Amino acid sequence: MSEPLTTQDGEVADGAVESGPEVIKRFAKTLPGRPGVYRMYNHKGDVLYVGKARNLKNRVSNYTRLGGHTNRIAAMIANTSSMEFVTTKTEPEALLLEANLIKRLKPRYNVILRDDKSFPYILIAKDHDVAQITKHRGARNRKGSYYGPFASAGSVNTTINLLQKAFLLRSCSDSYYENRTRPCLLFQIKRCAAPCTGEISSDGYDELVRQAEAFLSGKSNAVKTALASQMEAASEELDFERAAVCRDRISALSHVTASQGINPQGVAEADIFGLAQEGGQTCIQVFFIRAGQNWGTRAYFPRADKSVEPADVLAAFIAQFYDDKPVPRQIMLSGDVSELDLLADALSTKAGRKVEVLVPQRGEKRELVQHAMTNAREALGRKLADTSSQKKLLEGVKTVFGLERMPRRIEVYDNSHIQGTNAVGGMIVAGPEGLAKAHYRKFNIKTEQDTGGDDFGMMKEVLTRRFSRLLKEQGERANEAGDQAEKVDVEIDDTSVGTWPDLLLIDGGKGQLSAVQDVLKELGIEDVPVAGISKGPDRNAGREQFHVSGKAPFMLEQRDPVLYYVQRLRDEAHRFAIGTHRAKRAKAALANPLDEIGGIGPGRKKALLRAFGSARAVSGASVADLEQVEGISKSLATAIYGYFHEGET
User: What pTM value is reported for the model?
Assistant: First the structure.
């Protein structure tokens, strides 16, 4: 169990905020010699660092001595003006809490796991009399058997497709299943046994489910052997049709295992981590081995300072990686990590069983780790090449638009609507690592009844909302690079897109440019460069004109890489806005007017539709007819009638 300790800010007599070793020293005096987690804050209240300790007092006291620190740690100490502490019963518990806080708070000086998306699983759902095979992501709240994780949705879909050929399990929803009167197309192409219409007996289908579970549990050879025996028996009985079905199922199973590339013989359940470092960046490649089969791989690029040792990066990465994921029985690493035994104890505590963390030195396991390292080096090489190309493009953007520095964050805006209806605005963001989709934003136009398709009005609303919120949350724009370095010269993460844009790109000409500049001026923002992109003659791609305040419109050479780059950004903004608009329009089209009536929930809505057939029929019903529906009182019937006949006498 964790216990929070009291904290105090580093205030001095004249009201200024004190920071540095003296502040930390005051905290260290009152700390207990127990395991726990500590957080370091700057004068703005931003979390600088989260750490864990076997002995809080000793660990925090280390920060009070002068000298002997890397630039990263020295900067962290100098900027610390407040601390918080939580004690724990054990050091493994402190490690798990530290990983959770780092993932949630993303402190500047910690190693940060980025791109931490959840993994998909294969689920054989058993909350229905007839089991269903489906892809699953998220909380495991459905009854059934889960198999995974898989590295991507694509690998899950491919595997399910092949498993359907092999085991003929249904993949349709329960409602679709219940309403079948004849087999669907999947039965015709031999992807489903059609239990919905009794084409297979209940016992026969249950046997298929058991075979699928056995295969996914690692008993693939046993399943193949059983199918081979069935094929031979059918052939001897001259039942060639049944023999052909068994043959096709064996072939499908062979494709499942063949498509997985690596199928270790001596490893049943493990995650394999391979680390590579180059050019100040780190790549960690993860292989997922389950049931003796390779279920995919994924490359991660954690954020870490160049001064952090590879062993520390890998240890921090693994602790965060398993914060919200199930832990396998075995974890194989390409190199030693900091406090390996502690990491194993913490993961065993989380899993509720023994977890082995090892660095293989020979045999098949060593080959698997080396393969992961090779993939990590190749992925990092591709990443560095892309980053180098991206840097050249951003340098080109700086030159073309006359910026003071290479842009770290470019925001591109576009609107989408049909004659002013379902209007939306879209913002995409690009930075040193390309498109930053986590920073995309959509804006539902709130004044579309006033703008009536007025692109200028829509853009004004979008920009006003965007920068008003930015000012409220971040305050006035500052030199972000200088603000990060603060009091000590420390290298800045050059992959971050920051919060304030270095360039705004608007799809439009002088009019749109002027409207945007007016919005920024009203908000007191005068140092954000803005450029407009207007279609060229005959709207030909490559003939676009660029509009920048204080300069005549200009064009770029048709083969200029910067032109292609800006075109891609504009097209991505257009795609994002169009997609958002279509989703909004589709939702509006499916909206039921009954949903807008107070007192009408799912049960009463279903009863009304069952009684009248459609919402339109409900709108034409009298109060007396509405009262006849189960669950509809006289007052509610009057309210429903009034909703559809508002204004009538």
Answer: 0.71
